[in-house]
Structure formats: C-alpha cells, structure tokens
Amino acid sequence: MAELQTKRGSQLENADEGHSGKKARARGMTNGVVKQEHQETEGEEEDQEEGEVRQGTSDPGAALVATEAMGEPQISLRLGITLFHCRACLRPLKPPTFKCDADHVVCFACRTVHGQSCPAGAAYVACPEVDAFVRDAKQPCAFEEFGCNSVVVYHSAADHHRACPWAPCSCPSPGCDFLSSPARLLDHFAAAHAWPIAEVSYGRPHALAVPPPGGRHALVGEEDRRVFLVSASAVGAAAVAVSLVCVRANGGAAEGVPQYRCKLWAEVASNKDNMTMMMSKVASSNLAGGLPAAGEQGMFLAVPVDILHDVSGEAPLLMVRIDRISAAAKAGTPPARNTRRLQ
C-alpha cells in the first residue's frame, strides 16, 4: 500500500518580519482556525481550498452539498498485510468474515478448517467491522506503470491481475528487450521495427500480403483493441508457415477473458484452383520467449511453393478472419482442423 499521505494543519506565516518569507511550523491547533496572510506555494493554495470547505459558510446544508460534490475523502495507509489475510488459508479475507474465541479472523469457508488447528475454533462470531475494511481496502493495479489506472479491492486484486489487459508482454524481435502493455507494444512495433499494423473487424476477412519468413504483421481488433501478431517462418525448402497469436500476458486461462478463433487461408485471386486453409482456436502469449519456430508452435498455415510462386506471377494473399467467442462458449468450441490443401 502507498505511504500515508495526509495533510495535517495549515502552514503558518512567521510573525517575525525577519522571517516573513519562510514557512513556520504549526505549534498547535487549539480552535481549528488558522489565519493565513498570504500564499507562497501551491501546497498553501490547496490548504486554503480545504479551509474554505471547513469554514466557508454557516449554512450546514451548503457545506454538505460541497462535501458530497467532492466525494468521500480518501487516504492511503501502510498496514501489515496479515491484517487482511485469513488465519486459516492465508489468502486475502473476503466478507463475510468470522472470529474465533482467540480473536483469529477467518473466511466464512475456513471455519471448519481453522477449528482443527485452533483450540478456540469451536465457536465464531461475525465481524462486520472487519468486513467493512476488507470491502473498502483498495490498491492501484500492479501494472499501473504500464498504463492501467484501475484501483482494485485488495481481496480481488489477484483476479484483476490475471485478466488485466495492461499486463506487460515482451517484444518478440530477437535482441530486443522492450517490455510493455500490448497497446504500447503496437507503437514500438511500428517505430522500432517498422512492422505494419492494421485494424480488423471480428467475423470479417482481412487481406494481407503473405509475409516472408521472419515477417511480422500486427492486427488490432476494432471492437476491443485486442492485439494479434501474424508471423511467418520457413518450413521445408520453400514453403512458409504462417501463425497468429493473441498478445496478452494472462493468456486465455483467466476466467471471463474473451476467447478467439481464427481462419487463415492463402490464395491467388486469379487462380481459385489452389488454396490452403487452416482453422483453430487462437493461442495467447506474452511473447517472453519470442515467437517459436514453425516446428515448435501449435497450429499454423503451411503455404506451399506453388501458391507462393503461382504461374500467373500474381502475389498470393493471406486472408485472416478472427472471431470473438465468449468465455462461456469456449467449452463448446469445435476441435481445430488440420491444415488442408485444395487443388
């Protein structure tokens, strides 16, 4: 938790003319009224504004309206972490909480377990005062430096971090140690590596040039700004393996995060006789180990030489269609089909 950040008192002017430009220490607040002759710093201006809220009007109703408009005051405290953890499971307390006769606070579900190790764990009383604290104890997201502005309840922080879209990922380019959120990686891809970036709509095909081995192409979902990376590597003597990955640190395992399916196919517009296609669920990766080679990755589209170098001389197109599916629907996702080639 952050350092205690609270203003105590107002800054006083030194009555001595020889020290008129310096701040004096507050020597007591007997009646809570501070006289300010002039302001010297930005901090003093903020203190004056707070003084106006406390003293500004004799109308209690107006003061209440002013306070409500400001919102409930918030403070940051540093407290021992054990105060917010269950004495039985050692995980963050979630209301409702209970206390045994030895004053051990435990989760509702841990009462039976705690009773096996604590002699005073036979009887429990509810702790509404503890519930009030654990419901309101909040902390900034651990990925604040990467762009997340969320302030989350402490006992739910782990769930938030598992699904946070700002969790950092790595740049997969060899020798590049850039680390940031997927959204910020996009700017890095374009500025540092000149990788093309395109927006795509889910459920609609998007045409790209088939990337050469080592080529990359970033895609961004228009609906949710999810980042995908298309990559190509050599497979065999002349074929190219194309794969697609969702760039996110928490992967697809976190509860409630969206899932995706993709269809990749390569074709020459003027020659519909030859086409190769692949359908699969989109894997997720934080790209910490870079992009795996074709033989190490999961599903990929193998584009053979007779499509890459069609007799017409026309450059082949890589068609990409991404479908977003709900987390609840992933259990019914049909199995991925192997790469097939139609002639």
UniProtKB/TrEMBL annotation:
Annotated SUPFAM superfamilies: TRAF domain-like (SSF49599)
Keyword terms of this UniProt record: Metal-binding, Zinc, Zinc-finger
Region: Disordered, residue numbers: 1-59
Domain SIAH-type, residue spans: 136-194
Keyword Nucleotidyltransferase found: no
GO molecular-function terms, A-Z: zinc ion binding
Entry keyword annotation includes Zinc: yes
Gene3D superfamilies associated with the record: Zinc/RING finger domain, C3HC4 (zinc finger)
Signal sequence range: none
InterPro entries referenced in this protein's UniProt entry, alphabetically: SINL_plant, Znf_RING/FYVE/PHD, Znf_SIAH
Function, as annotated: E3 ubiquitin-protein ligase that mediates ubiquitination and subsequent proteasomal degradation of target proteins. E3 ubiquitin ligases accept ubiquitin from an E2 ubiquitin-conjugating enzyme in the form of a thioester and then directly transfers the ubiquitin to targeted substrates. It probably triggers the ubiquitin-mediated degradation of different substrates.
Protein name, as recorded: SIAH-type domain-containing protein
Gene source species: Eleusine coracana subsp. coracana
